[in-house]
Amino acid sequence: MKFQHNESLTFKDIKKQVTDYLPPEVIPFIEKSYNFSRLQHQNQKRVSGEQYIIHPLHVAYYASLIKMDAETIMACFLHDVIEDCNVSFAELESEFNLNVATIVEACSKVSKLVIKDIKSESFKKLFLAMSKDFRVVVVKILDRLHNMKTLKFLRPEKRIAISKETLEIYAPLALRLGLRNVKNELEDLSFYY
What we know:
This protein has about 190 residues and is an all-alpha fold.
């Protein structure tokens, strides 16, 4: 299985994917998380110049490819809204549910860790301990996977630093969670840069 960066990816692609394995009653909640994220990120662009929503779309799509549950897919759409859009935990809990809000909040907390100051094995243990729910780690790994696929838009020294961090932390975590295809892609992209 290859996790592609597809500029024409839409919510319909994800809906088609999740309809194959999730119960129909959760699809409206997944769509609500997509629409909420799209609204929150509407004025943001990626370094590539793409609309920001393309990033959470890909992260959610990757989660659907590995058949993650509805709350994880919702969290994939929402993973940056606390950090980048000033959406509160309470608002996420009210709009969605406690589990989704908790995953998103934990993703924001992990993003704020200063990795360069921590030896990678210690960081991996801290990362796993911080996320009482393994789905936080899955979302962060898939977030990193999509970011690696768009790394070409960053400065060369930034690409190298992110690639090293990916090799030391994210690829081993992916393997630890049984996400061998994700681990392989993270390594391939890291070695490329």
